[in-house]
Amino acid sequence: MIWSELHREAVARLRAAGIEGAERDAQRLADHVLGGAGRWRLRQGETAESAERAAYDAAIAAREARQPVSQITGTRAFWTHDFRVTSDTLDPRPETEALVEAALALPWTSVLDLGTGTGAILLSLLSERPGATGTGADISAPALEVARGNAVRIGVTADFRQADWYAGIDAHFDLIVSNPPYIALAEMAGLAPEVRDWEPHQALTDFGDGLAAYRAIAAGARDHLTPGGRVLVEIGPTQAEAVAALFTAAGAEATRVLPDLDGRDRVIFAQFPAI
């Protein structure tokens, strides 16, 4: 069977499984099996080898089970790099790039990333800011191993600590960033299966009202910032008012809500006093 026929059958299987973007996913998985972007188009008229057919069938079966494409291929593009992802890490999402863009518009030479996961935010920032230093903290040891590996892949030096938010972190930073678990427990059942069934729940929800992480980050921010330091946190689209209020109560002298590319509330900026 030639690759174009395999691809056509794969698209039909994914559509039958209710997957949006079936053609795109079938092509991405074919490229993965064949060893790189664009390989399927080069080989679509060629006969697939038996090992290739078996690998492609397994990949399509995994996608039919709603496993995210990034977990099947092992990588996800974010900002300007490809990051390794696993079932122990949150899949980096395009909307989080709004936080990276906002951070790069600020003056800073040291940054702390709380709940670093794959390290996508931290490593993207450090790759764009030569000479800056950064620490990524996460409670998950397996996630930190992924982040360390991504740092090596990208060629960025960073410090990684296993920590429950600020626990054990005594340094001060010009900037604190975070994409914390902000989905309320009551909202989990309504998530897409790719998220609900495959990504680590501790990176998605606080198993409460979705605000616990912000309470912890806000409460410890002033003790871990240099004078005049700033915080940027990603939020859910309905959380802006509540999260901004938490930072104001914790001593921030100014807060702003920043949108993502779709115009939805996505990031809270908090400025702390210089004295």
Automatic annotation (TrEMBL):
PANTHER family: HEMK METHYLTRANSFERASE, MTRF1L RELEASE FACTOR GLUTAMINE METHYLTRANSFERASE. Signal peptide: none annotated. It comes from Paracoccus zhejiangensis. Residues 5-74 form the Release factor glutamine methyltransferase N-terminal domain. This is Release factor glutamine methyltransferase. Belongs to the protein N5-glutamine methyltransferase family. PrmC subfamily. Residues 96-184 form the Methyltransferase small domain. S-adenosyl-L-methionine binds at residues 115-119, 138, 165, 179. It is an enzyme of class 2 (transferase). It comes from the Bacteria. InterPro entries: DNA_methylase_N6_adenine_CS (IPR002052), HemK-like (IPR004556), N5-glutamine_MTase (IPR050320), PrmC_N (IPR040758), RF_methyltr_PrmC (IPR019874), SAM-dependent_MTases_sf (IPR029063), Small_mtfrase_dom (IPR007848). One of its GO terms (molecular function) is peptide chain release factor N(5)-glutamine methyltransferase activity. It holds the Pfam family PrmC_N. Substrate binds at residues 179-182. It catalyses: L-glutaminyl-[peptide chain release factor] + S-adenosyl-L-methionine = N(5)-methyl-L-glutaminyl-[peptide chain release factor] + S-adenosyl-L-homocysteine + H(+). Keywords: Methyltransferase, S-adenosyl-L-methionine, Transferase. The keyword Ion transport does not apply. Its EC number is 2.1.1.297. GO terms for biological process: methylation.
